[in-house]
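INFO worker-7 received task bundle
INFO bundle size: 2
INFO processing item 0
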Amino acid sequence: MYGIPSEERDHFVLGCCISMATSFTGMPQDYEVTRKLWDGRIPVQFVLDNSEFLQRSAKPFCTMIPRMSYFPIALPRVLQYFNTIVEHIEPESVWLQYNGQPLKWHYPVGVLFDLLKSDDLLPWTVTLRTKNFPKEVMRCAGDALEISFIQSIKEADQLKHKANIINSMKSDEHKQLWNGLVQDRFDEFWSVNKKLMENSESEAILHIPIRIYEAGRPFRQVLISPLDESGRRRTLGDVLRIVHPEDEVIAISQGILVPLETPLLWMAENFCYLDNFIHVVLTAPT
């Protein structure tokens, strides 16, 4: 469970298990779970690419990045540090790499870590590059990340409420969601985001926003409702039986091995990332 302080891990796992068990009775959103997920951090060590920069002895820049955040939000601090060591680095030319693989800006940091990190060694060493910009990575100039983030929230609410809630919000509420993310302000973000979690008779959650990731392939989305035809709550296992009907896989979300019997509705309300999607990484059993 990377990115959660070690002294809190046992307590966090216990809280998750209790919440998952009691969620079958229809309990509301679990503050403790959402708060601890928000506080999850990953230690990252940024290094310059040796083939592009002559200052090979430049010390790495080390920082703790929220799992829920995105690399471009941390990048100004990274460049501020390296620009004191090397000739000025243009932000528009920067891309990041881990273990030979380009990192996609619009994926949450926690998703990239769960998807690509192949060992338990920390900090996570990420290489900063400026040449041969990869075609599969979108350039993150200006407000591109903010637009992408808000668009993901809109897509999630389209699935949940036919976009009724996000479209009824004012533009300053959209801005508050973004600012809450950038400035790492839990209360500011959730005072707006809680509206998107509504699940009442008048605004029931129709479908679960979920994205499934596997190494070496684009993510997949499954259109699935919270309940089946008999009224039974659908679970994470139901999704996996759709995407991998014959294979046994392990599901990781937020750095945690998630029980397959976990209800999707509970995950949508408590375990989603800030873009309101559940992001699940699948791996083969070892």
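INFO item 0 finished
INFO processing item 1
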Amino acid sequence: EAMRFRLPVVAYDAAAVGETMGGAGILLARKDLAEAAEACALTIERPPLRRALIEAGERRIAELATDLVAARTREVFAL
């Protein structure tokens, strides 16, 4: 949702989060509140980083468009 609303993403690497993000955000290896706060602060304090993350998120959203994912799914299952 954050990517869709053009917000930088900071998330914990759990389940499929890292794969879903596809490098379009700051991925935290562990649940450390200080580390999470620091990463969030970086997105505020460094406009070039914020812009880069937002642009990466826009590209990732395009890669995950419903029609593209559906086509890839059909290819995988040879439908």
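INFO item 1 finished
INFO post-check item 1: Strands lie at 10-12, 26-28.
INFO post-check item 1: Residues 10-76 form one domain.
INFO worker-7 idle
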